Amino acid sequence: CDTTISRNNIKLLEADATKMRYEHYTDSTKDISLFINVGGGIYTVGTTRKFGIIRPYENINSSLDSTVIKRFLEEKVPVININNIPKLTDLFDLPYPPNNKSQIKMGDLFYSQKKYNLKIILTAFIIAAGTVLFVGIVSHREIKKRMHSSEPESIL
Questions:
Q1: What letter does residue 55 receive in the DSSP assignment?
Q2: Are residues 123 and 109 in the same domain?
Q3: Quick one: 66 and 14 in the same domain?
Q4: What is the DSSP string of 73-138?
């Protein structure tokens, strides 16, 4: 954990850090319209089991006392709390815990991999190609017929 913090140049927040965490988030801007928490930390979410969107006007659970989420809710800032990361990573076929071999912007989270019915695709292609070929042949015959029916000298 310490090596990850130092490698990514992240400010370390100590254990008794609810106020420090809140100030860390609000120092860069005073205009926060939504707080998204991924994972958990007792100083951020408390011991609550609530996840999803937590709206400021909802009854604030007592387990949120002295947490960053409660401070944001008191400021009327909606909160999205995402829990159960291992289950989410399984759902989107992402490695958990993350490893350095993961490629950015790759995987089911970013790209949908659908398997299409090959029979339907081939049938549609044959119909489309046949239609284009048919229209081309009919057009060619019509143009050829008009070219033969007109007098060449009248064009000059």
A1: -
A2: no
A3: yes
A4: HHTT--EEEE--HHHHHHHTT--SS--TTPPTT-STTTS--PPP-HHHHHHHHHHHHHHHHHHHHH
Among residues 36, 66, 83, the one where a domain terminates is 83
Q: What are phi and psi of 134, to 5 degrees?
A: -60, -50
Count of alpha carbons within 13 angstroms of residue 148, beta-carbon side: 6
Judge if 91 and 75 occupy the same domain: no
Per-residue pLDDT of the chain (156 residues; tens, 9 = 90+): 567 767 777 666 555 567 777 777 788 777 888 888 877 665 566 655 555 555 554 555 555 556 777 788 888 888 887 777 788 778 777 777 766 666 666 665 566 667 889 999 999 999 999 999 999 999 999 988 888 776 666 555
Q: Are residues 42 and 79 in the same domain?
A: yes
Tally of structural domains, the chain: 3
Two tokens at 149?
A: 């029916």
Note whether 44 and 15 are within 8 A (CB).
no
Kindly report the length of the chain.
Answer: 156
Query: Do 78 and 89 sit in the same domain of this protein?
Result: no
- Determine the distance from the C-alpha atom of residue 132 to the mean position of all C-alpha atoms in its chain, rounded to a whole number: 39
Print the domain residue range for 53: 2-83
